[in-house]
Automatic annotation (TrEMBL):
Coiled coil: none
Alphabetical UniProt keywords: Signal
Domain of life of the organism encoding this protein: Bacteria
Gene3D superfamilies: Glycoside hydrolase/deacetylase
Stated name of the protein: Polysaccharide deacetylase family protein
Entries under InterPro entries matching the protein: Glyco_hydro/deAcase_b/a-brl, NODB_dom, Polysacch_Deacetylase
Domain NodB homology: 61-280
Cross-referenced SUPFAM superfamilies: Glycoside hydrolase/deacetylase
A matching Pfam family: Polysacc_deac_1
Amino acid sequence: MNRSRTVPVLMYHHVTPAGGDINVTPEHFRDQLAWLRDHGYRSLTCDEFAAHLAGAPVPSRSVLITFDDGYLDNYVHAWPLLREYGFHAVIFLVTSWIGDGPARACAGEAEASLPETPDHAECMRRVAAGNAASIALRWSEVERMRAGGVCEFHSHTHTHTRWDKQDGDKNARMADELAQSRACLARHLGEVSDHLCWPQGYFDDDYVRIALAAGFRHLYTTRAFGRNRPGSDPASIFRFAVRNTSGASVGRRIRVAAHPLFGPVFNAWKRWKRGQRYAG
């Protein structure tokens, strides 16, 4: 077992012409995938990543590509590019947002009638207004993406709610969230995995205990400054956000994250820097 080998986990939300920090344009996403391909990287499945954490060998240049929430633009813009460049991606679904209806057009098909894919702020406004259907995937699109083996789908809870900020018993609410999400995935996909991504990046010891009891084992955080090595805790998976930037820029971040010497130093420095900022 090579315990020094780290698999960086990339965190995306949107691939849309809208651009922005949490929205990567199709042009930049293409450049990022081209960099990965040209430098010999392979994207793992969740099963392969889980096996890596358990000690199984993976290619030295491996990454895990993840998307949070399940936005329509993942289908319209990201999926065609993933297919073109030969990469696999993991999409964590907010299951209550996913609707019914026929699959819409994606890039490369009926370009004149591609559906609107707004930026993150507008997506959140529509979700708050009860109009998630206009910005989220449909089950027919999930099935289309899944059928080709390019994308796999896992839980991001049922409603994406920060129950710790609401009245009532947050632990009971989270247990219900996870039960509803699992039931929804089982009903629509015929299966549910042990991979879970925390809503809005929040979790605590209670939530981890509840998730493990619900059948989840691999828990994905928004914590960027750590290493996903063989033997590391599957209940604390580190991911870093990919920005709307060039492939070379993302490549530098990947190389730092995976480096057995520079990676730990970089992570320690960033954690110290963040601690100083909060202390101030």
